[in-house]
Amino acid sequence: MGLMLEGTPQLTLEILQALYAYWAGKRQGRAMPDRADIDPIEMKPWLGNLMLVERKDDGDYLYRLYGSTFVNQFKIDMTGKRVNELPAQQAELLRTEYDAVVHSRMPMSRRYTATFDYTSRDKRSAWQVERSWERLALPLTAGGEDCRMLLVAAFPLEPAAEDRLS
């Protein structure tokens, strides 16, 4: 599914619907909430599946927070790193997505499928699993009127067998 910019996103997963409702409640009549309005204590249901992304003056994006679920799935922690440090095709896709949210000042949702590498605990076997995810990107200000940050969450549309084993 391609990028979907929406006033109210059409989300399948209740956990993302709840995150959108949380964000919308923090708007307080504004186009978007400020980063300071987001309370980390209130974010507990989503924490491992959240990214906080800052738009830099040069147009690139910096991951201020990269959730533990993504670290485990992608085998890399992007906290403190920029989108341009990712493989070129992935970086371009994410820049396009993030730019759309920043310039429209509207939430964006999409579904995507990714292939993940797994290795057994004893390191004797490896396999790949394809998983589909739903993703929500929400704009935030940072002490002004412009969108300077994004609150991004992604959750698998159904748990993988590996998740059920742990």
Structural features, described:
By secondary structure, the chain is α+β, with helices and mostly antiparallel strands. It has a single domain, classed as Beta-Lactamase, CATH 3.30.450. It is built from four helices and six strands; from the N terminus they run E-H-E-E-H-H-E-E-E-H. Strands 1-4-5-6-2-3 form a six-stranded antiparallel beta sheet, with helices on both faces. A hairpin with a 6-residue loop joins strand 4 (108-119) and strand 5.
Oligomeric organization of the protein chains = single chain
What is the mean predicted local confidence, pLDDT? 87
Helix vs. strand class: alpha+beta
Radius of gyration: 16 Å
CATH class: Alpha Beta
**Main sheet characteristics:** 6 strands, antiparallel
Short key terms for the protein model shown above:
166 residues, alpha+beta, 4 helices, disordered N terminus
Short account of what is shown:
The chain is an alpha+beta fold. 26% of the residues lie in helices and 31% in strands.
List the helices and strands and how they pair.
Layout: E1 4-5, H1 14-27, E2 50-55, E3 61-66, H2 68-74, H3 88-104, E4 108-119, E5 126-141, E6 147-156, H4 161-165
Antiparallel strand pairs: 1-4, 2-3, 2-6, 4-5, 5-6
